[in-house]
Amino acid sequence: MKPKNVTNDELAAMVQKGFAESKRQVDEQFVQVHHELGAIRKQLLGVVYRPEFDDLQERVHELENLLTVFKKKTA
Questions:
Q1: 38 DSSP 8-state letter
Q2: Whole-angstrom distance, CA of residue 51 vs CA of residue 57
Q3: Cβ-based burial of 66 (10 A; exposed 0-12, middle 13-18, buried ≥19)
């Protein structure tokens, strides 16, 4: 088969169509990521992060030690 000669206008139309399709796909993926991120944020509501947990655990441990000392003094 003899190759078809493509005009500049036809080439421009093909390139534009390719970019439009790529943009559509990126937009769809962005919407999907946005929804997934929203779902993740909902799951993380009320989650205590490790440094905060460790700090709280240390404070409770100190209070338990103080309580033990107080109980021994009053016994």
A1: H
A2: 10
A3: exposed
**Tokens at residue 49, please?**
């992060």
Structure tokens, 6: 């493509």
Q: Which residue has the tokens 């779902």?
A: 39
- The token duo for 8 is 């500049």
55: amino acid identity, one letter? D
Question: In a 3-state reduction of DSSP, which class is residue 5?
Answer: coil
Write b or e for each residue in 7-25: b if 16 or more Cβ atoms lie within 10 A of its Cβ, otherwise e: eeeeeeeeeeeeeeeeeee
41-71 pLDDT, tens digit each:
999 988 889 999 999 999 999 999 999 988 8
